[in-house]
Write a structure and sequence with these properties.
Number of helices: 20
Strand content: 15-25%
Distance between the termini: 49 Å
Strand order of the largest sheet: 5-6-7-3-8-9
Number of domains: 4
Shape: globular
CATH class of the largest domain: Alpha Beta
CATH superfamily of the largest domain: P-loop containing nucleotide triphosphate hydrolases
Helix content: 40-55%
CATH topology of the largest domain: Rossmann fold
Length: about 625
């Protein structure tokens, strides 16, 4: 079943064409990843599909009654609204139905209750608030009464993500869903979407996410769309085949063009009607030859400054903010060309730590001894503040007119920008015209062109497109210097770093010798072992005499229910099935269509109270069941 069909879509801003005459469809069950370079119109295309932006030509057709959820790149909330209110006041059909139902109850609007109860059944909305809280908790938003204005941009994005997930639409459109998620949250979302029946259209630079969630990749390139029926790994393989075929066709056309051009010049008399077909074919050939070859071997080469044998020594570093420990007696000595990845949940102090290393924040105690030859290049989450009225080329020339490469050559500012995928045309754009991703790419350009020998990169992958990420990964693997990188991009970390510092909270830092994937595998095994040990300890706990509490050599004994708890458990065992039966009967009555308005109101209130009681008793039954 087709959910969405786009035909002949064209969009331009002034004389700049983003895409022209593109067409594609999205069927039920498809999970589509949209890939393109920054500035080529990914977010614009999603906004057009969602109805947020206009377009020049074409048609967009949705299936009748299709429910669509859209996670915008920059969601906007009323700053006075609480987190829970922001979710309950979302513009999804489910949230709207819950609001209307509660209003009808409040105002005793019996004429509306019957149809609203039907919709509540249809959307399974009776426990909507509880499900909202569960998803918010998985996304580490736990203060449901906090005003939205007090949340960071990343936290607001997570609230917006919870909104679209809880609505369970038929089609989910996501713009960079993994930005501002830590690794645990990203992996949870990956699992959630991979096992969901929802159809999906999303933009993300997280390549593991694309590989594990998507079953189709659509690439927007040179104003045209290319579709690949498979995951990201399949796309990489087939895209290269397409590029090779395209380049071979351009090369053949150029070779033939030279032959035909020679014929045209040598045979002016052949321009009669008899040879018209050949002249027409010549012009078609000319069009093919004018197509650009796709260059896939672009590399980023920037000379790094010499770095001596003494790099960086940290001794007994401690840092805390109030009661929160960031570092607790941390010591480390850097080696030449070492590449370290820093991982950890949001709020464990990763950004604070690297600001201490480069001297932007002082430690509470301990010493940092930097080598005399160390020259930092720091890419921060906040980014550089550009003069938006300047042109791209001028922003780079302000730093340097020429840039030395690793092979002894020099590049002009314009040539250097081309290595960062800024075309000559784009270089003369004003900075305010750049997309968010293009500005991040320009910022990265300014960091690397200063010839650092110690790169400190704080979330460099946010807002960068996959092509730029591949360039950066290639550069970092060949970089003759040291690298510290903080990133939630698992693919990026696996390709770049030699070992991992895991910030585990409360000032603890684990130095793991291996890739991020190796670390996650080790961590999962460790957590599994800890659970088994805890379970074994609970099942085989030493008995202790009251007068000898410290005597450990007592017979083992499992924790038992008290007589009172046992009676409570037996009562719950009988009560829960009865309550489930009452719930089913109430739901059947409410959807029967035979009740009066007064009966509808009475039974809907009874159902609400019954579900609260059932939840409470079920939780207590589970708690006691641990010890049966």
């Amino acid at each position: 079943m087709i959910h969405l069909q786009i035909e002949g879509l064209t969009k331009s801003f002034g004389d700049r064409v983003l895409f022209s005459d593109i067409s594609f469809g999205l069927s039920e069950g498809e999970r589509v990843g949209l890939i393109a370079k920054n500035g080529t119109g990914k977010t614009t295309l999603l906004n057009i599909i969602a109805g947020d932006e206009s377009y020049d030509a074409g048609t967009i057709t949705f299936r009748n009654d299709l429910r669509v959820g859209y996670l915008r790149q920059l969601p906007v909330f009323d700053p006075e609204t609480t987190v829970l209110q922001a979710c309950l006041s979302a513009d999804s059909e489910v949230a709207q139905t819950v609001r209307e139902y509660e209003l009808a109850l409040l105002h005793n609007d019996t004429s509306r209750l019957e149809s609203l109860i039907t919709h509540m059944e249809q959307f399974k909305a009776w426990d909507y608030e509880q499900r909202v809280k569960q998803i918010l908790s998985r996304l580490k938003i736990n203060d449901f009464e906090q005003p939205m204005g007090q949340l960071s941009g990343g936290q607001q994005k997570r609230v917006a993500l919870a909104n679209v997930l809880i609505a369970e639409p038929d089609l989910l459109i996501l713009d960079e869903p993994t930005n501002h998620l830590d690794l645990d949250m990203t992996e949870w979302l990956e699992e959630y979407l991979a096992h969901s029946r929802v159809s999906l259209l999303m933009v993300t630079h997280d390549r593991y996410f694309l590989d594990r969630v998507c079953n189709r990749i659509v690439e927007l390139d040179a104003r045209a769309l290319y579709s690949y029926k498979g995951n990201y790994s399949y796309y990489i393989e087939k895209r290269q085949e397409r590029i090779d075929a395209h380049n071979a066709e351009v090369d053949r056309a150029n070779n033939l063009l030279r032959t035909e051009l020679d014929w045209i010049r040598r045979q002016p008399q052949a321009r009669g009607s008899k040879a018209k077909y050949r002249i027409d074919a010549f012009h078609e050939l000319e069009e093919k030859a004018r197509r650009e070859r796709v260059e896939e071997n672009i590399t980023l080469a920037v000379k790094s400054s010499y770095i001596g044998s003494k790099i960086f020594e940290m001794q007994h570093l401690c840092k805390r903010f109030g009661e929160k420990k960031i570092l607790d007696d941390f010591s480390y000595t850097f080696s030449r060309y070492e590449k370290v990845g820093i991982v950890g949940n949001n709020g464990t102090g990763k950004s604070t730590f690297i600001k201490m290393l480069i001297g932007l924040l002082p430690p509470d105690s301990g010493t940092i001894d930097r080598g005399e030859t160390v020259r930092f290049g720091y890419y921060s989450q906040e980014g550089i503040q550009f003069d938006n009225q300047k042109k791209v080329i001028d922003a780079v020339r302000d730093i340097a007119e020429e840039i030395s490469t690793g092979d002894g050559k020099k590049l002009s500012a314009s040539q250097f920008l081309q290595h960062f995928l800024f075309t000559p045309e784009t270089q003369y754009n004003y900075i305010y015209k750049l997309s968010g991703g293009e500005k991040r790419r320009l910022y990265l350009c300014t960091v690397l062109m200063s010839n650092p020998n110690f790169l400190v990169l704080d979330e460099p992958t946010n807002d960068l497109d996959i092509v730029t990420l591949n360039l950066l990964e290639d550069y970092l693997t060949r970089f003759k210097g040291c690298v510290i990188v903080v990133s939630h991009d698992r693919y990026f970390m696996d390709k770049v770093v030699d070992h991992v510092w895991a910030f585990e909270g409360d000032g603890r830092v684990k130095d793991f010798p291996g890739s991020y994937t190796d670390y996650r595998r080790w961590k999962a095994e460790r957590e599994s072992e800890e659970k088994r040990a805890l379970s074994a300890k609970s099942a085989d706990k030493p008995a202790q005499k009251p007068d000898k509490p410290s005597d450990a050599a007592q017979p083992s004994q499992r924790r038992r229910l008290t007589f009172k708890e046992k009676k409570e458990f037996e009562a719950l065992d009988e009560a829960i099935p009865r309550l489930e039966a009452e719930k089913a009967a109430l739901e059947a009555d409410l959807s029967s269509g035979t009740l009066s308005a007064a009966q509808l109101q009475e039974k809907s209130l009874a159902l609400s109270r019954l579900m609260e009681e059932l939840d409470e008793k079920s939780m207590r039954w589970l708690e006691l069941g641990e010890w049966v």
